[in-house]
């Protein structure tokens, strides 16, 4: 079972608040912004949200699932435990390792990229195991940043329609319309 064993805020929301204030000629404040301000900034995707960063560790994550997260490259970094025998001391040649082997992975990402990853990895068309890994991380993140997690939705909710070539059907449900309405709230 995929686990998140560590999740930390690297920076605070006050960093984004003060960057936003700078852009309109206001001085810095020594406080955290309101949840409503955070929600508005996240929905607008203004550049200061890229200053809000988190880091975490996944354990027992299948090697092939780590490959899905490696595809994300803007606003994040990934560090995956190597399978190289010269580094690990393993007696198994690298070419004989299996995709399903469990591994460890550290990742860092800013708020904008966390939302972007969510659009792809929360989609019902994404693999079940990758959705599970991402959902597990978001459950931990919700404990320290529930506003950000409230804006982490699949692409269909973000756009208001399903752009997939083979739609799963979720966009045609009452739950979808409720999810869109909830996503857009700022209070």
UniProtKB/TrEMBL annotation:
Molecular functions (GO terms): flavin adenine dinucleotide binding; thymidylate synthase (FAD) activity
SUPFAM superfamilies hit by this protein: Thymidylate synthase-complementing protein Thy1 (SSF69796)
Coiled-coil annotated residue ranges, if any: none
UniProt GO BP: dTMP biosynthetic process
Cross-referenced Pfam families: Thy1
Domain of life where this protein originates: Bacteria
Protein name: Thymidylate synthase ThyX
Highest classification ranks of the organism: Bacteria, Pseudomonadati, Bacteroidota, Bacteroidia, Bacteroidales
